Amino acid sequence: MSQQASTIYQTVILNHNRSPHGYGEMPLATHKADGFNPICGDRVTVLAIIEKEKFANLGFTAQSCALCRASASVMVGALTDLNLSRAAEFVAKFEDMIRGKTVTIDGDAAAFNAIKDYPARAKCVLLPWRTLTEAMQKGLVSAGTQANTISGTMLAPLVSTEVGE
Amino acid sequence: MTRFSLNGKLNAAELQKVFPVLSRDIRGKKLTYLDSAATTLKPLRVIDAVDRYYRHGTANIHRGVHLLSEEATSLYESTRTTVKDFLNAADEREIVLTSGTTAGINLVAKSFVKSRLKEGDEILITTMEHHANIVPWQMLRDETGCRLVVAPVREDGSLDLPAFKSLITSRTKFISCTWISNALGVINPIKELVIAAKSAGVPIMIDAAQAVAHEPIDVQGLGCDFLVFSGHKLFGPTGVGVLFGKMEHLEIMPPQIGGGDMIKSVSFEKTVYADAPSKFEAGTPDIAAVIGLGEAIRFVMEDVGFALIQAHEQVLLGAAELALRDVPNLIILGTSHPKAPIFSMVVGKIHPHDVGTILDLQGVAVRTGHHCAQPLLARFGVPATVRASFSIYNDQEDIKALIQGLAKTQELFA
């Protein structure tokens, strides 16, 4: 395999693609949004349970390319159990890294650093993160029993979205 | 004998030398360009013609008596003559220069078809149309209440001809169909489709965007009412295309865009439009691109020739089909013949975008996605494919590079 291919499709990314974190339905999700990339047909659904200003549970389902799927898995790993303001910082930092800014990012998310040189694939990698943002903006899935478990501040967007870019 | 013939065959090695992009390294690898169905590369002859216009002769057309303007007008109009000969049209006034296939289809939809429609009338297209030959008709449907009828495609990618014919009824007011599927490469029996339309007295338009680089066109022989194509799929510049329309139709069609260069006289009380084709060419066009298109056609006709193009492409088609057959878990959509060397592929469970990126890293440029033909891919139950499309400058080495790239992709995702 060429050096460049192994830079993008690093083992850590391929492993997340093969065995993703948080893959599957989440019937008790408090927040949910569907993301779609009309250019390639990638679809991702991001699901979250927010309790005590934290992502108590985060998951997704996807029909997508490997980069999108692995990125969703990395997102789940990075943000689960994180409080919402720290999570928002992480999402913004991840997007900055994909956009080519110099940032220090921890853990498996750093494996996506090479994507900055392949802007056509940035949308694949960002789709789950943007969809999470949309889920937060949409607010509660339904004003049911979960409503009293979260506060209004949690509904603030994590980052500004660039829908339809 | 043309410039690029050698022992009765296309001399691809020599031909490659006049396409400067082919000498570029892509991420440290030799470029293997397999995306000609999206846009073809441009030969030096075309690049030089465009360069010459800007470097030595920039001027507007159809106005001004100075030498530069006269030269520009002459070059611009010479493209019309070249296109007329290329299509074997009866009259060069039947050649409308547009910005591309999409503009041509929209013009015919709005100017020719719309006024003929009433609620319940039908427009017939096929499942294998490009979005450019779907969306304008949907817009008309929404405006007029007409129905959009879609002729089905068989499992092998071929058009279901008996179904197509049976869908032509007394309600059918217009037919618009592609000659070659941009997504599958399947070639429709276009003459038969035109005969079916004409025998029912229904006007027909041919979308030749994909066909124009693979098939010689004779609009009089075909008997079609309209035919559209884009310059950039015929080794010419982007931003220019052609609408051929029978004179009797163009004469009665109202212009859709008003402005300069499309009038005989203008006063605040009344404007008298110019005759066709000028009435459809309002505003300053992309003069350089039009000049480039003329040069592209002369390149095809004088330097290469369709006999060599077709023979060369059929060799590539056969060789690629054979080689792709040995790639495990690879499915080709659109296996019916006749076929242009365009391969829409599903590579196991690997997403087309991943295949595309890994091929790109090997220097192999392919198209991934829905190819602006979402309904067709939905017909085959896939959202996207990897499309490799070959042209005159491709050779056996390119097939080898594709096969090696696919093997590397599968190795990575094993």
What does this structure look like?
The complex is a heterodimer of chains A (165) and B (414). Chain A is of the alpha+beta class. Chain A has helices spanning 3-8, 11-18, 66-79, 84-98, 119-138, and strands at residues 31-37, 42-51, 54-63. Chain A has one domain: Sufe protein. Chain: A (Alpha-Beta Complex), CATH 3.90.1010. Chain A has five helices and three strands. In chain B, helix 2 packs antiparallel against helix 10 (287-304). Helices cover 38% and strands 17% of the residues of chain B. Chain B folds into two domains: 5-38 and 305-412, Aspartate Aminotransferase, domain 1; 48-302, Aspartate Aminotransferase, domain 2. Chain B has helices spanning 12-16, 44-56, 67-87, 101-113, 135-144, 161-166, 190-199, 219-222, 247-252, 287-304, 306-325, 352-361, 374-379, 396-412; strands spanning 5-6, 9-10, 25-26, 29-30, 32-33, 95-98, 122-126, 147-151, 172-178, 204-207, 226-230, 241-245, 263-266, 271-273, 330-333, 342-347, 364-365, 367-369, 385-389. Chain B contains 14 helices and 19 strands. In chain B, the strands form six sheets. Chain B has a seven-stranded mixed β-sheet with strand order 6-12-11-10-9-7-8, sandwiched between helices. In chain B, strands 15-16-19-18 form a four-stranded antiparallel β-sheet, with helices on one face. In chain B, strands 1-2 form a two-stranded antiparallel sheet. Classes of the chains: A alpha+beta (165), B alpha/beta (414). The interface between A and B is medium-sized, with 20 and 20 residues.
User: Using CB atoms under 8 Å apart, which protein chain pair has the greatest interface?
Assistant: A-B, 20 and 20 residues
Radius of gyration based on Cα positions of chain B: 22 Å
Number of domains of chain A: 1
| Overall geometric form of chain A | globular
Summed up, the helix count of chain A is 5
Spatial extent as radius of gyration of chain A: 15 Å
- What's the CATH C level of chain A? Alpha Beta
Q: Specify the CATH architecture of chain A.
A: Alpha-Beta Complex
Largest sheet of chain A: 3 strands, antiparallel
Oligomerization: heterodimer
Q: What portion of residues of chain A is helical? A: 25-40%
Major sheet size, sense and barrel closure of chain B? 7 strands, mixed
Within the largest sheet of chain A, what's the order of strands?
Answer: 1-2-3
Class from secondary-structure proportions of chain A? alpha+beta
By CATH, the architecture of the largest domain in chain B is named 3-Layer(aba) Sandwich
Q: Mean pLDDT of chain A, as a whole number? A: 84
Distance from N terminus to C terminus of chain A (CA atoms, Å) equals 32 Å
Query: Count of DSSP E strands of chain B?
Result: 19
* Helical content class of chain B: 25-40%
